[in-house]
Design a protein that fits this description.
This protein is mainly α. The chain contains three helices and two strands; from the N terminus they run H-H-E-E-H. The protein has one domain. It has a two-stranded antiparallel ribbon. It holds the Pfam family Arc. One of its GO terms (molecular function) is sequence-specific DNA binding.
Length: about 90
């Protein structure tokens, strides 16, 4: 993967929001921006037919991208709970 730099102008309020979220997620603003951009492309490329649906057993099927996002959130929550418990 080739890394390149990009200079952008954004409103100060948006920059402040990015900074708060980056600190909350314990990573740099650069990492926060990259994560958000990558997620936006994941959502964009998902086929529109990949909405959740109920199966005959009453279970709900979710698109793989949604399942992966839920896994990440749960893993992060578990780590935070473990830190608090220690």
């Amino acid at each position: 993967m080739t890394i390149t730099s990009l200079s952008v102008r954004i409103p100060a309020e948006l920059r402040a929001k990015l900074k708060v979220q980056a600190e909350h997620n314990k990573h740099s603003m650069n990492a926060e921006i990259i994560k958000r951009l990558e997620e936006s492309f994941i959502h964009q490329t998902e086929p529109t037919s990949s909405v959740s649906k109920k199966t005959t057993a009453g279970n709900v099927e979710l698109p793989a991208a949604d399942v992966n996002r839920i896994r990440k959130v749960l893993k992060k929550a578990a780590k935070e709970l473990k830190k608090k418990a220690d």
